[in-house]
């Protein structure tokens, strides 16, 4: 379900967090979808269960996931009735700042990054339509 690249210098927990967020953003995972158990995903990815638990916990604090005791971990509605517009904008601002900073670290200008995102968004919509 998610891929981890051991050769990537990005920490494993950050790769997993990003993979879950991308799956939600692209619609591969939708509101109410159940995630694998911590133990199952750790075995599947060949990582420590504490790594998966840390990611699930951080995403739950961020409002992306919700854990239902004895049932499992699920994708939570983001920006739903419980989130005000200023809260959503603050989250988006933080995400945008982090993304632009990461892109700049890799040598991409803001214009290159924004143009790439436009093209990628079009590709993602096409992939969803074709898939």
How would you summarize this macromolecular structure in one to three sentences?
The protein is 59% helix and 8% strand. With 131 residues, the chain is mainly alpha-helical. It folds into two domains: 78 residues, Winged helix-like DNA-binding domain superfamily/Winged helix DNA-binding domain (Arc Repressor Mutant, subunit A, Orthogonal Bundle); 52 residues.
Describe this structure in words.
The chain is globular. It is 59% helix and 8% strand. It is mainly α and 131 residues long. A hairpin with a 3-residue loop joins strand 2 and strand 3. It has five helices and three strands; from the N terminus they run αβααββαα. The chain has a three-stranded antiparallel beta sheet.
Summary tags:
131 residues, mainly alpha, Arc Repressor Mutant, subunit A, 2 domains, three-stranded antiparallel sheet, 5 helices, 3 strands, globular
